[in-house]
UniProtKB/TrEMBL annotation:
Organism taxonomic ancestry: Bacteria, Pseudomonadati, Bacteroidota, Bacteroidia, Marinilabiliales
A Pfam family of this chain: Sigma70_r2
Organism of provenance: Marinilabilia rubra
NCBIfam families, alphabetized: Sig70_bacteroi1, sigma70-ECF
Highest taxon listed in the record's lineage: Bacteria
Protein name (Swiss-Prot/TrEMBL): RNA polymerase sigma-70 factor
The RNA polymerase sigma-70 region domain, residue ranges: 30-94
GO MF annotation list: DNA binding; sigma factor activity
Keywords of this entry: Sigma factor, Transcription, Transcription regulation
InterPro entries: RNA_pol_sigma-70-like, RNA_pol_sigma-70_dom, RNA_pol_sigma70_bacteroid, RNA_pol_sigma70_r2, RNA_pol_sigma70_r4_t2, RNA_pol_sigma_r2, RNA_pol_sigma_r3/r4-like, WH-like_DNA-bd_sf
Gene Ontology biological process terms, A to Z: DNA-templated transcription initiation
Keyword Transcription: yes
Family: Belongs to the sigma-70 factor family. ECF subfamily.
Domain RNA polymerase sigma factor 70 region 4 type: 133-185
Amino acid sequence: MQDMKAEKLSEQEIIRGIRHGNVGVFEYVFKLYYPRLKLYGTRLTGNESQAEDFVQEAFAGVWEKKYLLSDQGNLKALLFKSVRNKYLNYLEHNKVVDKYIKANDPNDASQGLFMFSFLDEYEFEDLKKQMMDEVEHLLDTLPDNCKKAFVLSRFEQLKNKEVAETLGLNIKTVEKHISRASKLLQIELRKRDFLLYMLFLLLIH
């Protein structure tokens, strides 16, 4: 194959090359994306050595499952997503999720959205849909007024006083309903998928 330095490969050429076990193409991709992936991992973890491990594992995963790569895939997005997921798994396995959330306010959009910054628009919207499907399913398990209070507060952006007037309840009851729904959603989403949980904190909580 031609010297990779002398040409710029298209996304499809890269994917096909890796899928067919072309080591030269794989090395080309490694050199192309490694610096940005390492920077991304370092910003997530605050640890350059840990970031390097995640990046190397991400590349190893692509090579091991190269036969599953699709011509229509986005390899760069796949690699960034893999690094992010390895970081999230690391948090879960090491029981430091609470420490992370306290150190990085999930309501700070500039901080939290960085975790999703390498998703393309379709992937981000798909993740939002997954999160909303889970939220709607969980809300359906709550008493009617509890569900309505949360929906009016978080989705329709009504103030607690307005929610109380709409439902014919006192404000303290509304606050209890919203708190109950919020706690349920956080607990269950965190159990099911940490990424959906973080997205919930950013967009709805």
